[in-house]
Amino acid sequence: MMAVCSETLPDNWCKTTFSEVCAVNPTLDKAVLNDDLDVSFVPMSSVEAGTGSIDVSETRKFSAVKKGYTPFQARDVLFAKITPCMENGKMAVVPPVRNGLGFGSTEFHVLRPCDGVIAEYVYYFASSAAFRHEAEANMSGAVGQRRVTTPYLSNCEFPLPPTLEQRRIVAKIEELFSELDKGTESLRTAQAQLKVYRQALLKYAFDGKLTAQWRADNPDELETADALLKRIQLERARRYQQQLTDWEASDRRGGKPRTPKALPPLTAEDLGKLPDLPTGWSWVRLGDVASIIAGYAFEKSEYADSGVRLFQIANVSFGEVSWDKEVFLPNEYWESFKDLRLFPDDIVMALNRPLIGDDLKICRLRIADSPSILYQRVGKFAPHEPEFKDLIYWYLQSPIFIGSLKAELRGVNIPFINQSRLMEYAIPLCSLSELSYLANELERIFSEAKHLDQIITTSLRQAETLRQSILKEAFSGRLVPQDPNDEPASALLARIKAGKSAHSQGKKVRK
């Protein structure tokens, strides 16, 4: 007997196993069924993770499913046995099905409760985080194809209360879960509204409305975008000439400085697709305000056990750096690949799969993220002016840029954007003073929104913890009071065993 419920149970309960109170993966006499019979069909995708929701609306002919699928009927409990579906809680009580019969994925176990055992009680126990955690530790098979076996599930301990108490427990769980669901629904709605607010704020920022009052109050600080761009171009040309002179003076040691690349101005057709901007602002190309450096494809043979972290595409999250996956290069690479060094406040963007939904994989490095070296498929922006870091970081997360990017991503299996095309995208430019004020406002407001989002996330975790606490109380006999007038579980279990024995004897006589 596999120990799952280690709690001391009330006197009128008893510990048993799934195989004693349920038929585990019961068989079906298919010979008596007509091939043209319509039956319900439930693929794994039709069972929602963690909620018990199941869609049985799809139907197929019996002839199409009688081989290679798992049969079940109403009031059975479906239990996903394969990873990660089991860990995610893809389990459900089967509702009424077409012609009383359903078929589904072979990755389902079926638990058919005996008389006196309530299906919902079985479902809540099998779907609890405590049970799933224990089942995960006892899975068999290769990585990626691990499963809960039939013998393991059959022999798992099951806390059996009297039938009437099972009903009271299920009713109480559903009452408490209903209240929890209302609260979590409100939290998720607030979370979704917060995301909409952030996107609306970015749109508001880059059509000039967020800083409209600032412009009215500071007319003397409004250098036009055209004048700013011209000044930057002159400064880049002067800097290039100085680098060229220094290179010549050093007997041409090292690589020759690269000539600044001039991009063609946006066409009237390009501008016609973009929103109007305030007076003094201009649409320019991203390459007018920054260049981009893509990482290098280091070989696995170059990796080290420690040293300088390699900044890979897996480390780029949404507005944050994630070091869940760490790879190292030898320390000497820090000197060998100076162009690929990453420092605090650098902005990096995923060039492969840059979008997940409407979110861009872009982040700003913190002090703790350096030193690190850039890997392939990740680009680092090198702004021509320090203030342009804020412009790039915030604008590239705006719905204006993301809408343009979604329309042009190449690749079917792995959508990507190449460096040269990225530099051609439009970006709104304003005076450096206004840009500084705009960045400070966005930083302030987004910081407040992030704090609120963290509160919501914490509350959702607490709700899930409370949900599991309710289940723990339920299966230890502490959620509802015991009634001394209830038939004890031992009598129920004896009746179930007697019924199974009689059924087994009947089978032998018929044979």
From TrEMBL:
Give the Type I restriction modification DNA specificity domain ranges.
Answer: 10-183, 278-434
- Pfam families on file: Methylase_S
A Gene Ontology molecular function term for this protein is: hydrolase activity
Protein origin, superkingdom: Bacteria
Primary enzyme class: hydrolase
Q: Where are the transmembrane segments?
A: none
EC id: 3.1.21.-
Q: Where is this region: Disordered?
A: 245-269
**Record keywords:** DNA-binding, Endonuclease, Hydrolase, Nuclease, Restriction system
Give the InterPro entries listed for this entry.
Restrct_endonuc_typeI_TRD, Restrct_endonuc_typeI_TRD_sf, Type-I_RE_S_subunit
Give the GO terms filed under biological process for this record: DNA restriction-modification system
User: Which family, according to UniProt?
Assistant: Belongs to the type-I restriction system S methylase family.
Q: Which PANTHER family match?
A: TYPE I RESTRICTION ENZYME ECOKI SPECIFICITY SUBUNIT, TYPE-1 RESTRICTION ENZYME ECOKI SPECIFICITY PROTEIN
Q: What is this protein called?
A: Restriction endonuclease subunit S
Taxonomic source organism: Paraburkholderia sprentiae WSM5005
